[in-house]
Design brief:
- The protein folds into 2 domains: about 35-220, L-fuculose-1-phosphate Aldolase (3-Layer(aba) Sandwich); about 240-455, L-fuculose-1-phosphate Aldolase, CATH 3.40.225.10.
- It is about 35% helix and about 15% strand.
- It has helices at about 35-50, 105-115, 130-135, 145-150, 165-175, 195-220, 230-235, 250-270, 325-335, 345-350, 365-370, 415-435, 445-455; strands spanning about 10-15, 20-25, 60-65, 70, 90, 95, 120-125, 155-160, 180-185, 190-195, 245, 280-285, 290, 305-310, 315, 340-345, 375, 400, 405-410.
Length: about 450
Amino acid sequence: MPLMCDVPKTLLFVVNGGSPKSAEIPSMHPPRPLIHPRDEITQTMSRIYGYRMTTTSGGNLSIRDENGDIWISPARVDKGNLTRNDIVCVQADGTIVGLHPPSSEFPFHKAIYDARPDIRAIVHAHPVALVAFSICQATPNTKLFHQTHSVSGSVGFAPYACPGSEQLGTNIAATFAEGCDSVILENHGVVVGGDSLPCAFQRFEAFEFAGKTLIKAQQLGTVRYLDGEQLEIAHNRSVDLPTFEPDTAKPDERELRRQLCEFVRRGCRQRLLISTEGSFSARLDDDSFLITPTQKDREGLNIDDIVLVNGGQRELGKKASRAVLAHKAIYDSDPAIQAIVFAHPVNATAFSVTDVVFDTRTIPESYVFLLDVAHVPYGVQYLADGSIANFVSSKSPAAILENDGVVVAGKSILDAFDRLEVLEATAEAVINAGSVGTVSVMPDAVIAELRSAFNLG
């Protein structure tokens, strides 16, 4: 999926394996900005700090407005308690307006804007995974996943110069001038640009996600990357459904909408989902379910964003997740399943990009909650033939999707989310165990005892 601000007005879609057709959808380009730059910067910094992707003193954000003024976070102010009044405006003529001096890194922000007129916002921070690459003079290969590769844009590397110096601005701007969007700074951190602050944040988050996943995967074994053909298969896929106008929502639908939004937000804050990846759904009745939309920031979803799908039709005026047919296939195949989540938690996703088998027979709770986790070959979940249901059921509620994260099903939204947390915690424990010694797998006799004690069939 492209950046939410870069989605074309006309997309191709395929329904039930049919021929591609064009579908006119509302433009996803950023609407006329209504939120003030002060508020946009403070809200985004709060999110970055809350995700532990920067420190109290590290990082800075900026926005270049329509007048050519640059709004930027201040120097030497606690990033965890930033207020709108702390934000500084450096006007086009160089006049500084604000209670504080602008960030000491203002020179490289200005240099990037001068070099790239298309960039309207910049994120600079020191997230641990990308800092690790920066001190090794390396850049992460984002071809781990189609989504991350698309969102991160062109990746570059800028040589070291003293923080705050004009030379650092020159080095970074030169890399951006080559067409790079996400740039590793040698022995420093990362700088990401976008045509809006939400877009820059999405790039920054996806880039760090790729770095974290790659570090974890390399602890497991050889990393598998997607080739050009595989990236195109995912990039070009799209789904549309006929529309219908639903009746007034009943209380049970309203409650499921509330729960989906609550658990999607929790998933983002637990780092089980990121803003541009993942889908969550809940069954409403035999022939209908609710699902998260496509091309919307996951943490910012509200109950009106959730899409009702009924009898293969989508709620009028809304675009369901592009995984909607996979969700529908699983529901159609197994009436016991009441909720499904496709997600990209870092540790479990690390297994998806290697050939190492994810084994739940390491922890009793993991086996009881997840049973044996299936491995889904690349691209099965994109198909309209329903074959994803061969891998996910109430008797096999979790699966690793090759180079695309995981899918988990449950008997409720809470149950699916709980299983997702258990899956990620187990993956992290197994990866960490490799640094301690040899991983011990429970013998068949123990598994039989668990199946009997917990009525697992």
